[in-house]
Amino acid sequence: MELKERLQNKTAKIGVIGLGYVGLPLAVEFADRGFSVLGIDNDESKIASLNNAHNYINDVEDSKFKRVVTSGTLKATISYSSIPELDVIYICVPTPFTKNKEPDVSYIESATEGIAAGLRKGHLIILKSTTFPDTTEGIVQPILEKTGLKVGTDFYLAFSPERIDPGNKIFTTATTPVVVGGVTEKCTELACLVNQQIIHKVVPVSSPKVAEMEKLLENIFRSVNIALVNEMARLCDRMGGIDIWEVVEAAATKPYGFMPFYPGPGIGGHCILIDPYYLSWKAREYDFHTQFIELAAETNENMPFYVLGLIRRALSYAGIPFHQARIFMLGVAFKKDVDDTRESPALKIMEFLMQRGVHPDNIRFNDPYVKSAKVNGTSFFSVDLTVENLRLADVVVITTDHSLYEAEFIVEHATSVVDTRNLTKNIKNNEKISKLGAGTRF
Ligand SMILES: NC(=O)c1ccc[n+]([C@@H]2O[C@H](COP(=O)([O-])OP(=O)(O)OC[C@H]3O[C@@H](n4cnc5c(N)ncnc54)[C@H](O)[C@@H]3O)[C@@H](O)[C@H]2O)c1
Question: CATH top-level class for 241-435?
Answer without folding.
Answer: alpha beta
